[in-house]
Amino acid sequence: PLSGVSLLSQPPGGQVALGDRLVLTCTVATGTGPLSFSWHRGGSGAPLGTGPRPELPHVGVEDSGHYQCQASDGEHMAESPPLNITVL
Asked: Would you indicate the residue range of the signal peptide (predicted)?
């Protein structure tokens, strides 16, 4: 099964300046087979994107909030802890 799903941001620390680029990275410590990813913000069920590294090229104030990624190997699914992103 999948485990060790974590979420990192670039710039690090979860703070990004208004209008700057934000890159999120989802990593999986253990898991086999091809992995798929989905992204969510603020507990919303609407996916923000797929892939291990979504990018927001020009963040706005509305992009602040808690982000999570879900990883799936087709049989199991695991979520990262939420990461708070603050747009300054």
From this structure: none
